[in-house]
Write a structure and sequence with these properties.
The chain is of the alpha/beta class. The chain has 3 domains: 143 residues, Globin-like (Orthogonal Bundle); 93 residues, Translation factors (Elongation Factor Tu (Ef-tu), domain 3), CATH 2.40.30.10; 137 residues, 3-Layer(aba) Sandwich (Rossmann fold), CATH 3.40.50. Helices cover 42% and strands 19% of the residues. Helix 1 packs across helix 7 and helix 2 crosses helix 6. The two termini are 27 Å apart. The C terminus is likely disordered.
């Protein structure tokens, strides 16, 4: 347990983390990967290179500093991160490596010496936080293996079907090579896909949202041609090829035991988890509205699938948005709006401001939607989101 003095020292470091956190974490990753390149097996290299991974960790450290005296308030975020760790197979023995390099980066970037009170406090705090993650993740891994059909880490899956959904989107239907039945998973979750790519010394990993509700024989992911692994899947992987795949993980799922309206708000690749969520809401007879914006060539990729969902639901509404549509209105059951997603369109579809709101898209899009919803009086606990690319410092401040 941390002393009052240690908690005060950590909280006093929050402004420094807010200002220099991304620099700190960038140095941390550079030094750690240089000495332990095998950890590249577990990182999304695109997110490391574009800065979204450092930004996400910087935001987490900042929030830990602010809440060090009440860590229980961070439990939802801890569980969300733990799901990601389990998905990429983070091991107990890797936590000391991370802790060592994080402290060394603090010394280098913040100019702290070995006996500085702030550094000593962060050492103690890291050990406590790491043990929390280790315990939660061990329990989650154990639950995975115990499930019927469950497995540890990854196992081989065959690409059963490769379907072009739009110029930029391809769906992959992944079937266990051993033809076993998949354990139950929830719409909105994701899997890790590992690929052995030519010229790469280490396995390349990427997490993809499942783009359908539960099916016992396959996972479906829908991949936008964007990034190292995604481009490889588009160009090189064909039906019959094998990928290593983890069990599903994630907390971006429908809230249980609620008949409140559900609002699904997405942009770009953020549509992928929404497909399964919309189908699940329709199956539950839960009122829902989905609003999705994308490039003109991609926004209608799943229109037929959405039409089928609406045909079986009397309480659903789906609106596809793009400013280049010639006009707004209904072509079939799915509506089209010649606009972007902004406050006026959200206000026009909301039922008295009540409901659960699910957001998915880029960090910039998600941050903008959170701002709008909070300005409209939506309670923080009713806003659920998944950011593709990691949770940014600005998002952490908003929610």
């Amino acid at each position: 347990m941390l002393s009052t003095g240690q908690m005060n020292a950590i909280q006093q470091s929050a402004p420094l983390l807010k200002a220099e956190g991304t620099k700190l974490v960038t140095v941390f990753y550079q030094n750690m990967i240089r000495q332990h390149p095998e950890l590249l097996n577990q990182f999304n290299k695109t997110n490391l290179m574009n800065g979204s991974q450092p930004e996400a960790l910087a935001a987490t450290l900042y929030q830990a500093a602010l809440h060090i005296d009440r860590l229980e308030e961070l439990l939802p975020a801890v569980k969300q991160i733990a799901h990601k760790h389990v998905s990429v197979m983070v091991k107990k023995e890797q936590y000391p490596i991370v802790g060592h390099h994080l402290i060394e980066a603090m010394k280098e970037v913040f100019g702290l010496n070995e006996q500085d009170d702030t550094l000593l406090a962060w050492k103690a705090a890291y050990d406590i936080i790491a043990n929390i993650f280790i315990a939660i993740e061990a329990e989650m891994m154990d639950e995975n293996v115990k499930q019927k059909g469950g497995w540890a880490d990854v196992k081989p899956f065959v690409i059963k079907k490769k379907k072009q959904e739009s110029p930029a989107l391809i769906s992959f239907y992944l079937v266990p090579e051993d033809e076993s039945e998949l354990p139950m998973y929830e719409a909105g979750q994701y899997i890790t896909v590992q690929a052995d790519m030519p010229g790469e010394a280490y396995v390349c990993s990427r997490q993809y949202s499942l783009s359908d509700q539960y099916h016992p024989s396959y996972y479906r992911i829908t991949v936008k041609r964007d990034g190292h692994v995604s481009t490889f899947l588009h160009d090189e992987m064909e039906e019959g090829d094998v990928l290593q795949v983890s069990m599903s993980q994630g907390t971006f799922c429908l809230q249980e035991d609620t008949k409140e309206p559900a609002y699904f708000i997405s942009a770009g690749s953020g549509v992928t988890p929404m497909i399964g969520l919309v189908k699940t809401a329709a199956h539950r007879n839960q009122p829902f509205t989905m609003i999705h914006a994308d490039r003109l060539e991609d926004v209608t990729a799943f229109e037929k699938e959405f039409e089928s969902v609406l045909a079986s639901s009397s309480h659903g509404r789906i609106i596809l948005c793009n400013e280049q549509f010639e006009q707004s209105g209904k072509g079939g059951l799915v509506e089209k709006a010649a606009c972007r997603i902004d406050r006026p369109i959200l206000q026009s579809v909301m039922r008295e401001g009540k409901g659960q709101f699910y957001l998915c898209g880029s960090p910039t899009f998600t941050q903008e939607m959170i701002h709008i919803l909070k300005e409209m009086g939506i309670p923080e606990q009713n806003i659920h989101f998944e950011s593709f690319g990691g949770q940014s410092m600005k998002e952490m401040e908003v929610v």
